[in-house]
Each structure stands twice: as C-alpha cells, then as structure tokens.
Amino acid sequence: MSTPIAKVLGGPTGHFPVEAEIIGYLANTWSVPTLLIVFAAGWGVILGGTNLLVKRHNPTLGSGDKAAILWFVLTGTIHLFFEGYFSYNHAKMAGQQDFFGQLWKEYAWSDSRYLTSDPFVLCMETVTAALVSLGQIYGDVLYYATSMFDHYHKGVTYCRPEAYYFWGYFFFMNFIWIVIPGYLLYSSIEASGRAFQALDKQSKIGQSNGFNKKKN
Length: 216
Prior knowledge:
The protein is mainly α. It has seven helices and no strands. The chain has helices at 4-9, 32-57, 63-89, 99-107, 119-128, 133-154, 163-215.
C-alpha cells in the first residue's frame, strides 16, 4: 500500500505510479536547460538547412507550402530517429545516458510508461514512426485516451503531480501533433475538393461543347 509520502514523491525513482517497476534507472546527468538548448539547436540546423534548400530550388514557393515542407521534415525526422530510438531501446531506456535517452527520461516524468516497456506506448511509437498526418492524430487520441482511462477508471497516474509535467510535457507536446496535422489534413481535403470541382466543371464544359457540335 502506498504511503502519503509516496503519493507525493512517487516510487523509488520519483515516478508515478509508485508501484511502477523501473529497472536499472539512472538519473540524468544533463540539466533540463542543456537538453532543451541542444535539442532546439539541432532543430535550428535541420530546419534552417531545409529552408535554404527550398529557397534555392523553388524561390517562388508560397509561405504556406514552405511551412508544410518544414513541418514534414520536422515530424519525419522525429518519427524516424527520435521515436525509432525509443522503439529500438525501450527495454533498456531507464539506464540510457546518451542524448536521446536522457531526453526520453526527462519526458518520462510526465508518463512513466516510457520507462517500463508499456505495450501500448511501444506499439504507438513504432507505428507512428511510419505514418503521417492521420496516423499522428489517431496515435495521439489513443495516447491521451489510454492515459485518461487508467487515471479515472483504474486510479493509476503515470505523471508526477507538478503541473508543468502534465500541461507542458504530456498535454502541450502531444497536442501539437494533433493541431498541425489536423490543419494539413483539412487543407489537403479542401484542395482535393477544389480539384474535383474543377474537373467536374471541365467535364460539363466538354460535354456541352460536344452536344453543341452534334446539334450544328
């Protein structure tokens, strides 16, 4: 039975739920600001280089299309390398001390399932590593749903009680992957609709011209 102190501080490693079995855990040696600065700098290089290539090869490309390209480069790289890293190292994630490992361990304060080889989290991260917009939305909805179900139905919480772990890590960092893919999916559907409307209009014009020729 968990004690009142454990309910506040978490289990032996500080994670929740207190009974979570996190084997071989090693505390991070990099500070949170250092991890975030290096992470942001890496993305600055990748997205900055992508932006230069886009400007060089298609200088007239609109800002919306350019933003979409940058987003797909961002999400593709994260899914392939960052989430791919998790899928490959999930069984030993608690003891990983390289850069990606410490990033995942920092995020795990908001969801300890990333340190326990949770079947759903492992499958979700592995599958979304190979999917785009619709898969991202589907994966995130299930991710939120399973965590909330365990919290409200089973009374199991995977996140520490500090608000910034829940709202900053768990909610905001995942909500981005619903909003932007959702917008891109909506834009794609709209563009497809306009294309079909234009095709239908051209077809009607062609049929009308053919009818007039036969009449003459």
